[in-house]
């Protein structure tokens, strides 16, 4: 039986846990991994995580030369298995340069030798042309998910679902913080690029503005601790009372369906970097207020969301949202649901992306 090893350095995903649908549903976008594994198993493959192959207790009758590697970013486990003779097959990353800094610093290095790369489109040219680069279309819903429709009059004004992170990562433990500081000092140009394109400041500005108006509910981990934020935000967010902490990703669509608008900012401006945030709002029947990918309209029709780039001030945005007519609101909501039901929209389902990834593995296997 042919074997695929999904290689990640995230310890919580080891021992095959990330291949389990119930477990993977706890993490944004991760439900695609068990969907991918199931698609392969339906074709007669065995699917494990890379650490299981390295375990001495793994089936010794199976040669590592028969293991196909699907690698997350520059996983040390994947690299070790390839050095032992496993087959580089597919490399992918669903993180932005803000959080996968080492991967994006010279993305061509970890991608070298992989015939297929599934990456945000901004990474395609830097990754090189010695393999096939595919756009990473972030999965965010199941194909059998029923649309949600809480009556408009019963909804709250706006919500945001995001952890309280800041681009400098000043809330991480001291050893890692020192290492990050030294790295930033060594590569000032790269750090300046990260700072110029991060959207954490914009997100905090929006939260502070709408919180002071009593018009936003903030959900996500870490909002009770704001010590890592710049002083200007600590002061402006003093009165903020988080509506909830970590949200179960299996119920977040139901939560967001109770709001008219959902603030959906990516953490970084980068071509093709469109994550689950806007899809969560669409699947919830809430109107996304979006900022992030400069090419967002290549992925989602402009009629289906409100683009923050179109407003000169937060006051003008608030006025627009307050006075959105029933006809315009219904037009935006209908455009969102039509998009999700379309062939283009369905490409962002877990099942579609799982089948797509399985097909890439099959292409490599067919050449062996």
Structural notes for this entry:
By secondary structure, the chain is α/β, with parallel strands linked by helices. The protein has two domains: 3-139 and 349-366, 3-Layer(aba) Sandwich (Rossmann fold); 152-346, Glycogen Phosphorylase B (Rossmann fold), CATH 3.40.50. The chain has 17 helices and eleven strands. The strands form two sheets. A six-stranded parallel sheet has the order 2-1-3-4-5-6, sandwiched between helices. The longest helix has 17 residues, at 350-366.
Percent helix, as a range, is 25-40%
Task: Report the mean per-residue pLDDT as an integer.
Answer: 93
CATH topology of the largest domain: Rossmann fold
Q: What is the CATH first-level class name of the largest domain?
A: Alpha Beta
Strand count, sense and closure of the main sheet? 6 strands, parallel
Number of domains: 2
- Written as H for each helix and E for each strand, in order along the chain, the element string is EHHEHEHEHHEHEEHHHEHHEHEEHHHH
**In the CATH classification, which architecture of the largest domain applies?**
3-Layer(aba) Sandwich
Number of helices, counting only DSSP H or I runs of 4 residues or more = 17
Beta fraction: 5-15%
CATH homologous superfamily name of the largest domain? Glycogen Phosphorylase B
How far apart lie the N and C ends? 14 Å
In order across it, which strands form the biggest sheet? 2-1-3-4-5-6
Number of strands: 11
- The Rg value, from CA coordinates, equals 21 Å
Low-confidence stretches: none
């Amino acid at each position: 039986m042919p074997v695929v090893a999904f290689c990640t350095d995230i310890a919580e995903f080891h021992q095959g846990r990330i291949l389990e649908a119930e477990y993977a549903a706890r993490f944004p976008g991760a439900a695609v991994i068990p969907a991918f594994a199931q698609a392969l198993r339906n074709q007669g493959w065995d699917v494990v995580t890379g650490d299981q192959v390295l375990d001495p207790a793994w089936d010794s009758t199976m040669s590592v030369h028969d293991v196909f590697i699907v690698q997350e970013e520059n996983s040390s486990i994947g690299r070790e298995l390839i050095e032992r003779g496993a087959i580089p097959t597919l490399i992918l990353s669903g993180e932005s340069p803000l959080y996968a800094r080492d991967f994006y610093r010279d993305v061509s290095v970890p991608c070298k030798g992989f015939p297929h790369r599934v990456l945000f489109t901004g990474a395609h040219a830097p990754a090189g042309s010695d393999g096939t680069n595919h756009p990473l279309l972030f999965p965010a819903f199941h194909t059998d998910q029923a649309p949600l429709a809480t009556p408009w009059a019963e909804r709250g004004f706006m919500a945001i679902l995001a952890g309280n992170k800041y681009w400098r990562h000043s809330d991480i433990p001291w050893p890692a913080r020192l290492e990050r500081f030294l790295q930033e000092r060594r590569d000032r140009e790269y750090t300046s690029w990260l700072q110029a394109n991060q959207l954490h400041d914009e997100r905090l500005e929006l939260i502070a503005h709408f919180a002071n108006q009593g018009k936003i509910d903030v959900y996500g981990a870490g909002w009770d601790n704001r010590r890592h934020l710049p002083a200007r935000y600590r002061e402006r967010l003093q009165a903020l009372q988080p509506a909830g902490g970590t949200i179960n990703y299996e119920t977040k669509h139901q939560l967001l369906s109770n709001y008219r608008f959902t603030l959906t900012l990516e953490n970084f401006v980068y071509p093709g970097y469109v994550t689950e945030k806007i899809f969560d709002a669409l699947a919830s029947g809430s109107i996304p207020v979006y900022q992030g990918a400069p090419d967002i309209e290549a992925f989602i029709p402009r009629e289906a969301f409100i683009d923050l780039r179109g407003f000169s001030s937060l006051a003008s945005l608030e006025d627009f949202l307050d006075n959105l007519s029933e006809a315009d609101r219904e037009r935006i909501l209908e455009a969102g649901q039509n998009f999700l039901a379309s062939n283009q929209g369905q490409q962002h389902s877990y099942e579609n992306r799982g089948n797509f990834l399985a097909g890439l593995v099959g292409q490599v296997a067919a050449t062996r």
